[in-house]
Amino acid sequence: xxxxxxxxxxxxxxxxxxxxxxxxxxxxxxxxxxxxxxxxxxxxxxxxxxxxxxxxxxxxxxxxxxxxxxxxxxxxxxxxxxxxxxxxxxxxxxxxxxxxxxxxxxxxxxxxxxxxxxxxxxxxxxxxxxxxxxxxxxxxxxxxxxxxxxxxxxxxxxxxxxxxxxxxxxxxxxxxxxxxxxxxxxxxxxxxxxxxxxxxxxxxxxxxxxxxxxxxxxxxxxxxxxxxxxxxxxxxxxxxxxxxxxxxxxxxxxxxxxxxxxxxxxxxxxxxxxxxxxxxxxxxxxxxxxxxxxxxxxxxxxxxxxxxxxxxxxxxxxxxxxxxxxxxxxxxxxxxxxxxxxxxxxxxxxxxxxxxxxxxxxxxxxxxxxxxxxxxxxxxxxxxxxxxxxxxxxxxxxxxxxxxxxxxx
Length: 409
Hints:
With about 400 residues, the chain is mainly α. It is about 75% helix and about 0% strand.
């Protein structure tokens, strides 16, 4: 990528080379590797490496360490453009995913997971920054919803092929990982060559910043990261360990999630634009309190697989509403703060992720239901924080406290 094009000068380019098109291409490429890795993970580690609850906890702790150090993006963008860094990270994710099955031991899986996680987390940090820089505040909620739906569609294709072909073709973990990771890596290399470097109108601050007026955003990110880890690590693990789901059954459950996301994600974007970030986030957190409480009840009251499967789908849909947290920050941020704050926020989001999976892995061995009740408490805390978001957030009106202190005009 040698050509540099300003965002307000992209009209002369063919539509397929526009920055928004690149965002959609990346949104489709990342899940092909990451979602396939996730879909096969629980069966792979249980069947091949004989993982237990403690082992899976350690795996996800290692996986989240690069997210904790996502702040390193700030140092890298001094020397490398964000767009280049994002695509290189995407390629790294693809390559590491491709060779996952070559390391069927605890140490090998932890090592290759660390490498793929570096690619994933650095890509996600940069991608979130580019989205908020390349999209206007007016169009961001709607386009972010469509980007979420695009990722779901790409994942749907991956899961559909796994579910349909796993048994008939006697597919192996090695074959599926090689194909999915390879496709993501090839798309990343293509994007490096085919697209110019897009220059946003507001130069980004290339140093660590931690602004007091973003405190509510930081806290919401911390709680989101802690809560999300419990779902990512233990919800899918429960379906395999407790209910004995096979690969094609886990993938089928994921397919339900994806179809629902493809239909509902654009509606979520429109809902954020219509109702505002405050109401949407409160709705999400009330829903998550309910879902996690019912998850815990599955272990204490013996509720069955149908309820667990339904909760898994609802859980995924509710997490999609987290795009409101992105648009909340976009509205309160100085334009030059987006890149460094995206890195800082990603690190804050992963503080709990470094110790929670391993710690809760031991709690899981004693009381799996207690893990989900803890997540319900985290969602309730997030709801209380969301009560502090004003109806119309903007610089100077980041919280209801700031809004209350501003004299009426």
